[in-house]
Structures are given as structure tokens and as C-alpha cells.
Amino acid sequence: MSTIRWTEARTTRSARWHSESATPPPRRVVVADDRMKADTAYRLACEGTALLWRGDFPNARQLLHAMGRRIDRNRSHTGGGPAESFHLHRRARAHRARILGRLLVALDDDHSLALRRAPDVRQACTEAYGPPREPRVVSLRELLGVIGAREWRRKGVEVPALGARIHPHYGVFSPVRGEYVDLVAQAALPASARRGTGPRTAFDVGTGTGVLAAVLARRGIGHIVATDISPRALACARENVRRLSLDARVDVVGPALFPEGRADLVVCNPPWIPARPTSALEQGVYDPDSAMLHGFLHGLASHLEPGGEGWLILSDLAERLGLRTRRELLTVIEATGLRVVSRIETRPRHPRVRDSADPLHAARAAEVTSLWRLGRV
């Protein structure tokens, strides 16, 4: 971690800088409190100056919202085709995150927040950042995300296909879009080529919270191996598997894309959009150059038992945004020694489908999520 410095009460002070989005430490930091006007804060942030907040915590949140309104007022609405609209939308979101990320707060060496009327954030920060070691400075925007993640983890997300709740950790994609879970819960299981029975073993590649591994276990598959490249996801999946009393049938291993060996069924729900994530939180949504998708397809045939199937769960949103074509997907499938056995589809049910103010509304409204059943040629 880097160190940032600022002057306070005529004394030069310093602390460790922490950013989950790998934002560089600000070069200039000034102290701000309840007397600072939103216009001044916005102007300083746009000029690259970070504001270390020393006032009331609710007032800091109000200031953040006021700065956000000023960003939205000045946002350009110019756009062309779907791909251009997507890139403009991403650029606007990155600009917004950059400006709002310049309102900072200081955490003490026990992760406490020494501001008036501040909540107790120690547990939330420990879950996100690990055990406290020394004072650090983070953006208020990031801290609010950490606090929100703590609530998601505590309350969990109801998954009807499981009849239970899944508890996502900070930085792990939450199963709030249930249509992809329902596809795995409802698709007919492949018959084993050797015995004419259902699959005995399955791999869940890129398990995240472990929700799909749990669904497969509840469907009666005897042994599931779940993998992920993220240590946070591995810890999250292990905790959820234990909560559901499925740890005797589900092994969570990694970090890795594929486990060793072969399985009758290999399931993967990769990030759907081929674009670069700007933070750890976006890695469940954005897959640069479709790297995970291609990695899964290139490794699938060698990890399937004879007669086994690979299930690829993928939205066509990238196709509707002009970021990937269906022909490109089918070409990779063919080039990796695979064939399409069949495909089942569903429509998303999340609120953004109906949000006409969303710049990507047309693509989202037409989006289809598919479970591709793949076999070896």
C-alpha cells in the first residue's frame, strides 16, 4: 500500500492509502468538514484534490450525494450505436467514480471511524480488508460499499431454487439475478454414458458464492468440486456450503480455473461482458477479452468424462451491445473440439429491464440468458 500525506493543524500527517479499485493515492489532500460547500468540494475534486473528511458522518454522505448530482447535471448524453453507448456509459461511470472517490475518511488502527455520528464499521472493514494492522485512509464511497456488503453478508440473498439463503462476501458476485440459477436448477441432467444414470460428479468452474455448486448438490449429484481464482470467492463458497450442510459433498478448491481430473458435468457462469473491470467488485460482471469464457471452452473437453456435458450459462447482452457476435462464440466452441447439444433460454427479471432511463435500456429489455449444453465432438 502507498502512503498519503496532508497538513492538519499545521502538522504534516500521513497514513496508508487503500483502494479496492487500485486507484493511485491522491497527490494533494486537504482537510474538509461541515463548513465546506458542495460546489467547493465538487470543484476541488474535479481539479484532482482529495478531501479528507473531519466533520459529521451523515453530512459527509449528504455531501457525496450533492457532488453526485453535480456530476449527473454535467453529464453528456451524446451516443451512437449500442457499442458506442456502452463505452460512453462506462466512461461516464468511471468519471463519476473518480470524482466521488476523492472524498476520503480515515480509519484508525482498529478499523474504527472517528467521526461524529459514525456507525461502528469495524466488523464490516475486517470482513472486507482483513484484520486491522494500522491506520488507513479510504474513499467514503468505498467504505459505504463495505458497509452495504456487510449487510448483504449478514442477511443473505434468498435463492428460491435452493429454498435457502446465500450469503455473499464483499467483492464476490451476489446471486441477485436468479434466472441463471433457475436454468441450472431446471435443466435436465445428462445421462452418464457408462451407466445410463445421472451424473455422479460435477465441477462448478468460477463458483463465486458457491450457489451453483449447492444447486447441483441439492439435485442429487454425489460429488461436486467448486473452483475459483479469487481467494475471497473461495472463502465465501466454503462458508455457504457449510451453512447449507453440503460440505460432505462439495469440495471448494483453488485458486484455479479447473480442478484436476474429469467430471460427468462441468458448469460455468463466466462474467458476461467482455470489458475491463475497474474494481474487484466488477470482476463478476466484466471479463476482459472474454478471457474466462475462452479459458473455460479451451479446457472443457479435456475435463469431461465420456458422454459428459459442459453447461455454459451466458447472457447475449454482449451481442446486443455489439461487443461480441454469436458467430465468434460458435467459432470458439467448434475450434475447441466441442459441439452444441442443445440450448435453453430465459428472460431476465431484474428491475433494470424496465428502467427506460438506463442508457442501455434497449439492449437490456431484449436480453436473453441461455444455458448452452456442450459435448465433445
CATH homology superfamily name of the largest domain:
Vaccinia Virus protein VP39
Shape: globular
CATH topology label of the largest domain: Rossmann fold
The assigned CATH architecture of the largest domain is: 3-Layer(aba) Sandwich
CATH class of the largest domain: Alpha Beta
- Helices and strands, in N-to-C order? EEEHEHHEHEHEEHEHEHEEHEHHEHE
What's the tally of helices? 12
Work out the count of structural domains.
Answer: 2
Note the gap between the termini: 49 Å
Please give a quick description of this structure.
The chain is of the alpha/beta class.
Write a structural description.
It comes from Microtetraspora fusca. GO terms for molecular function: methyltransferase activity. The protein is an alpha/beta fold and 377 residues long. The protein has two domains: 152 residues, no CATH class; 221 residues, Vaccinia Virus protein VP39 (Rossmann fold, 3-Layer(aba) Sandwich). Helix 1 crosses helix 2 and helix 4 packs across helix 5. The longest helix has 19 residues. The chain is globular and about 80 Å long. 35% of the residues are buried.
